Amino acid sequence: MKIERVTENVSLKRTIDQGTDDQRKAVLSILEDVKERGDQALYDYTKKFDQVELSSLLVTEEEKKSAYEEVSEELLTIIREAAANIRDYHERMVQQSWMVTKEDGTILGQKVTPLDAVGVYVPGGLAAYPSSVLMNVIPAQVAGVERIVMVSPPQKNGLLPAGVLVAASELGVKEIYKVGGAQAIGALAYGTDTVKAVDKIVGPGNIFVALAKREVYGIVDIDSIAGPSEIVILADDTAKANEVAADLLSQAEHDALASSVLVTTSMKLAEEVQIEVEKQLATLPRQAIASQSVKDYGAIYVTETMEQALEAVNELAPEHLEVMTESPLELVGSIRHAGAIFLGRYSSEPVGDYFAGPNHVLPTNGTAKFSSPLSVDSFVKKSSIISYSKQALERDVNKIAAFARLEGLEAHARAVEERFK
After folding, report:
1. How far is it, in rounded angstroms, from Cα 245 to Cα 298?
2. What does the entry list as the binding residues for substrate (predicted)?
3. What band does 8 get if pLDDT is binned at 50, 70 and 90?
């Protein structure tokens, strides 16, 4: 990892992958095909892209039972405990509908209503992600969503990974389909004979999934356009180089496009981490992926002061931010932009990825400047409630009419005046 000194005028932006023209054209073609041919398009693309010829898209009860035979009791216990932690955390977010009555009889309020149907995309490919099932399904359930549909690309044997199926079964997900890629997004957005349309699509995926979600936004809602994983570690000279290096590599092994960055006030730590990263890379099973990530998107920035370091962190607006300093809590107030903030040496990023309870679906590519983690709020919508009494409208009618005429909307003005003719 290259060490670079940062003094002032911090500008550490990362280019967001918007996809190539060919990728966008391919996604549009797939979506249009799914809209026209429905299930048959899903079967054809699964055969083409996943090299699997399916007889049914729906996961059967037999497949779910078989998955339990492949997962040890120890892992099952861990999945259940993680699910309980995640549910407990998200249940604290639930908002209630409310109303307020004023002395003049006016009633104002807000009605909170869960979405009717949500589609959860669980990525496949290089790895299986039971944690994605938990993080996407549980907040939807807590919000009160009635219908939750899960889609995920099948393995070469035509089945979904056992861990993914067990996680979904533990949560009681009934509709699980063996389909991935842009074609799965199309099915969730437009609906087919087998996969009925939903109102919102959540969950990460590759560039084709991301582009497909962007294209169907407006027909359905989406959570975000997720980019590659990223971590920034803010550290001073009290941090341990081996721990910092391990945490940087925990993101680098995700994807060759993942970004791992250290921002520190200590040149000594920077040099030690640089050596430690190379040392740990040598024994990493996913060495090729992590090495490419570190080479292309890894960086160590050394600042003169903690204020400059914090400025750099806020400019990067990372998905994951670890604060490994002597007094991490003292810095929280200065951190404006981060998807999730991990405080202290015992709060390594994987603690949040799998077990602590907060959601690991987080804003990437600097979007933490204006976006939040997936939450219960992601699965509800809010309606305003307005009930004016005669007394209240009589008091305000002339003001409302004047405002309407200021905007040139005479019918608006007459609509309130008509009550008093």
Report:
1. 11
2. 229, 251, 254, 320, 353, 407, 412
3. low
